[in-house]
Specification:
Elements (H helix, E strand, L loop, with lengths): L41 H22 L1
Length: 64
Amino acid sequence: TFSNARLTVEAHLLDFEGNLYGEWMTVALLKRLRDEITFPDIHALTAQIERDVATARAYFQAQA
């Protein structure tokens, strides 16, 4: 997060290219990657997303 905005959930779909804006989907939460963090800027957020993607890929690889 960047501020105390309203509560939302954003899903990062690994290896998906397309546009789903306005579409409905079901998201299953399989594993919590980290606690909520307030980021000072977009660069810190981007770096954390990269770490989260690596963690998620490792999780799915271990499940295969």
